Amino acid sequence: MARNTLAEIADQGAVNIAATQARKAEISVANKAIHKFGGEDAILEFIASGGTISALCKVLGVGNTTFDRWVERGGAERQAAYARARTRAAQSLAEQTIDIADAATIQEVQLAKLRCDRRAWLASKLSEEFSDKQQPLVNIDLGSMALDALRKRSVVSLDDSA
Fold this sequence. Notes:
7 helices
């Protein structure tokens, strides 16, 4: 078992304090950038309109992790609002596919198809409503079927004396 010197313990404490202060400074920068953007409502509206988190973070000048921390620090209310915005984003992306398909010309069909496919894929990730995954229609429990069959079997004696 290694014994830490008093200096090593103090150095580790200083490193921990510096890391905590750095995280607080990141959140402070995020709060200022969000306020400058228009506040929490503007952020949620950007997301609900189909904007990506990466694009939002570029505009704000913060990292994705910092943005995630900002959402978490807002508590259950902010997290619920964020989840609702992501669900609305899926609806917005699905509606965008209709607009893209309607506006496509013969020369742009492949590009329009690609844009529609990407938006539909993203919508399926944001909301189960737009997911292609089919839920199983029948659930068969083979384990209990095998046990039931074993319980109902009869024992037959193979005796040659009969």
